[in-house]
């Protein structure tokens, strides 16, 4: 047959033939404002400390964090999420809600420096602050004790809001944590402070490098009794529904790439903003492959971020936030 349209098949290639056509027809867009940078601030260090398993990521001093925050604002990203590493840890994580605790001091400084230019999120958990490394209080028998932990989370939420956090992001996976934090914030005149719930957070092997970065590895056992079990999907929808019923303003799925099915299902199910956290192990894995020349780094990074957006996340928490924002400009 010659000339004319050939019946029987569609010519999908028509819309792929030039970069301009592909750009015009792209269904998913990635913008700097979609990205949030997780940052670590450590007490008692004079210089930023590299994290060996996360090349390019550091534990900041309060000063180096201020500089990094200015750069992040210049790059146009959406916000920062802060993790603190105190010099002194104890069984109850006292430094998490101490007004002069490292993360609260850093929040105060960044809020004073930047005002509302970047959304400052405070990760709310105890694992970086407890000597046993668990996300909650622990009974003498070594069980993570749900309900007493809620009182600690309530106190930490108030301290973080007082320090200047725009958003409180509880990541400890205790039952009832969102309700407890909402009640505490409302009672302390922070009715307008939103809660981004780490609603569907899985007990993941991909958090390995973060435990070096945040120095919060559990000293015994693991987090499987409170974080979600990787085989489960319907349970993520229950966790999300429960957190919304308790007053969450936005929800998160974590990790991101191995859980894109969960991101998609949650995004379909809810009408609040959905975030996904591209975690330390996802970062380390791709950096290692790129360092070996096995993947094109920039291309692969942008592809992962696009995939997470395509699955339905509006916001992506990623250690590549600033670099990716510069590529996107
Ligand atoms: C604290 C917390 C963790 C991460 C974010 N918040 C560690 C954990 O649950 O063990 C992981 C982030 C990452 O791996 O990048 N609960």
Automatic annotation (TrEMBL):
The active site is at residues 201, 254. The keyword Metal-binding applies. Keywords: Heme biosynthesis, Lyase, Magnesium, Metal-binding, Porphyrin biosynthesis, Zinc. InterPro entries: ALAD, ALAD_AS, Aldolase_TIM. Pathway: Porphyrin-containing compound metabolism; protoporphyrin-IX biosynthesis; coproporphyrinogen-III from 5-aminolevulinate: step 1/4. Mg(2+) binds at residue 239. SMART domains: ALAD. PANTHER family: DELTA-AMINOLEVULINIC ACID DEHYDRATASE. This is Delta-aminolevulinic acid dehydratase. The keyword Magnesium applies. Its EC number is 4.2.1.24. The lineage of its organism: Bacteria, Bacillati, Actinomycetota, Actinomycetes, Geodermatophilales. It comes from Geodermatophilus siccatus. Pfam families: ALAD.
């Amino acid at each position: 047959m010659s000339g004319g349209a050939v019946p029987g098949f569609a010519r999908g290639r028509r819309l792929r033939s030039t970069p301009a056509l592909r750009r015009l027809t792209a269904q998913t867009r990635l913008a700097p404002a979609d990205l949030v940078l997780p940052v670590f601030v450590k007490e008692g260090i004079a210089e930023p400390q590299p994290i060996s398993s996360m090349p390019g990521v550091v534990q900041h001093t309060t000063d180096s964090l201020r500089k990094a925050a200015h750069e992040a604002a210049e790059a146009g990203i959406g916000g920062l999420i802060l993790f603190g590493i105190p010099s002194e840890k104890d069984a109850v994580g006292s430094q998490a809600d101490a007004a002069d605790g490292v993360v609260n001091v850093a929040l105060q400084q960044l809020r004073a420096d930047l005002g509302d230019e970047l959304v400052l999120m405070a990760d709310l958990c105890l694992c970086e602050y407890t000597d046993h490394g668990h996300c909650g209080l622990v009974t003498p028998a070594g069980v993570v004790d749900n309900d007493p932990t809620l009182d600690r989370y309530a106190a930490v939420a108030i301290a973080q809001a007082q320090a200047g956090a725009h958003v409180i992001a509880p990541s400890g996976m205790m039952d009832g944590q969102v309700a407890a934090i909402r009640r505490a914030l409302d009672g302390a005149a922070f009715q307008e402070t939103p809660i981004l719930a780490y609603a569907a957070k899985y007990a993941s092997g991909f958090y390995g490098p973060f435990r070096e970065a945040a120095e919060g590895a559990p000293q015994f056992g693991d987090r499987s009794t409170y974080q979600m079990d990787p085989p489960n999907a319907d349970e993520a929808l229950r966790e999300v529904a429960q957190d919304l019923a308790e007053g969450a303003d936005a929800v998160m799925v974590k990790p991101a790439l191995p859980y894109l099915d969960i991101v998609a299902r949650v995004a379909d199910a809810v009408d609040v903003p959905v975030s996904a956290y591209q975690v330390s192990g996802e970062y380390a894995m791709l950096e290692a492959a790129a360092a070996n020349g096995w993947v094109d780094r920039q291309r692969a990074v942008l592809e992962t971020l696009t995939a997470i957006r395509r699955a339905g996340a509006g916001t992506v928490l990623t250690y590549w936030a600033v670099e990716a924002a510069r590529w996107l400009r």
